[in-house]
């Protein structure tokens, strides 16, 4: 179980690490182009990886694929990649990073509620207590900088909240398919479906954008964003949630703003405060509390 917790935490740290990259990309490239290229790069990497790893047995990996698998795969592509990317990128453009952090604090609660309603997973008293603790801890991490938001941020805030709901829905679908197919195959299929969803929306921007107006660093960041968020984070998450209830896995989303904050300190030279330490400590304690109850159940 400890290994599952570690993999889930690493997955969410990767997701948080891509937030800073996403901020840069959203200012330079059309959102649908980012989504399309992200899925294309990820699908190619996963395809080469799986074909090399299986050595002529690539087709056999799809033998267990049934109609029952298609719904969670399509759901992950639609909500976890297409909807999440569109809502988050447009939301970040219209709002602020501080507001995005505060709103993302609702993700553990959203996952827990959906797992209770959708998967009928029982919430124990300690798990129920850990949810508001995690939300409160992440909010403390971000509240310091929230004072400057004005009425013009409401649209962006609403889009970011829709991204949170999309990510929570993706978590439920991922839990449903985590143990049915090989991890790399699942990630490959999710990215291929998302690629097909992005394609009609990206054709226009792809044909009209200035390909020579962007430096090599931007394309490198796009590659890192694609591999980090659509390959490594997906595979780690699938492996981690195999043995973890969705409501407990939702607590680990608290690592997203923590890792994003660490990158802000390291690369943007922001100064951490006592409030940052308090919020991070509360989030980690909430995750430990919810996970501990699951281990002793």
Quaternary state, please? Answer: single chain
Mean pLDDT: 79
**Biggest β-sheet, characterized?**
none
Radius of gyration: 19 Å
Residue stretches low in confidence (pLDDT < 50, at least 5 long) are 145-152
* Number of separate helices: 12
Number of strands: 0
- Portion of residues in beta strands equals under 5%
Shape: globular
Whole-number count of domains = 1
Q: How much helicity do the residues have?
A: over 70%
* Sheet/helix structural class: mainly alpha
Topology order in helix (H) and strand (E) letters:
HHHHHHHHHHHH
Distance between the termini: 12 Å
List key phrases describing it.
297 residues, mainly alpha, 80% helix
List the SSEs and their pairings.
Elements (H helix, E strand, L loop, with lengths): L1 H27 L2 H24 L12 H28 L2 H8 L2 H12 L6 H19 L10 H24 L5 H26 L7 H26 L4 H6 L3 H14 L5 H23 L1
Helix pairs in contact: 1-3, 1-9, 1-11, 2-8, 2-9, 3-7, 3-8, 4-6, 4-7, 5-6, 5-7, 6-12, 8-9
Structure, described:
The protein has 297 residues and is mainly alpha-helical. The protein has one domain (2-52, 66-296). It is 80% helix and 0% strand. It has twelve helices and no strands. α3 runs antiparallel to α7 (154-177). The protein is globular and about 50 Å long. The two termini are 12 Å apart. The model is unreliable at 145-152 (pLDDT under 50).
């Amino acid at each position: 179980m400890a290994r599952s917790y570690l993999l889930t935490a690493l997955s969410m740290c990767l997701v948080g690490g891509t937030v800073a990259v996403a901020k840069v990309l959203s200012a330079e490239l059309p959102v649908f182009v980012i989504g399309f290229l992200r899925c294309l790069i990820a699908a190619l990497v996963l395809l080469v990886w799986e074909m090399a790893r299986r050595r002529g047995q690539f087709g056999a990996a799809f033998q267990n694929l049934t109609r029952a698998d298609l719904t969670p795969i399509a759901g992950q592509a639609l909500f976890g990649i297409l909807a999440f990317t569109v809502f988050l990128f447009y939301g970040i453009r219209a709002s602020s990073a501080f507001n995005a952090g505060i709103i993302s604090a609702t993700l553990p609660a959203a996952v827990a509620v959906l797992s209770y309603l959708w998967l009928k997973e029982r919430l124990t008293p300690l798990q129920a207590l850990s949810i508001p603790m995690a939300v409160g801890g992440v909010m403390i991490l971000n509240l310091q900088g929230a004072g400057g938001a004005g009425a013009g941020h409401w649209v962006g805030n609403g889009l970011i909240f829709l991204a949170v709901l999309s990510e929570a829905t993706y978590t439920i679908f991922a839990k449903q398919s985590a143990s049915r197919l090989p991890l790399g195959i699942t990630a490959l299929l999710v990215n291929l479906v998302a690629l097909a969803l992005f394609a009609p929306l990206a054709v226009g921007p792809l044909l009209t954008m200035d390909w020579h107006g962007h430096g090599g660093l931007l394309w490198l960041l796009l590659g890192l964003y694609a591999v980090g968020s659509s390959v490594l984070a997906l595979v780690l998450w699938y492996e981690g949630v195999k043995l973890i209830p969705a409501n407990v896995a939702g607590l680990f989303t608290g690592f997203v703003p923590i890792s994003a904050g660490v990158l802000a300190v390291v690369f943007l030279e922001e100064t951490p405060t006592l409030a940052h330490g308090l919020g991070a400590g509360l989030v980690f304690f909430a995750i430990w509390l919810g996970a501990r109850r699951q281990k002793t159940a």
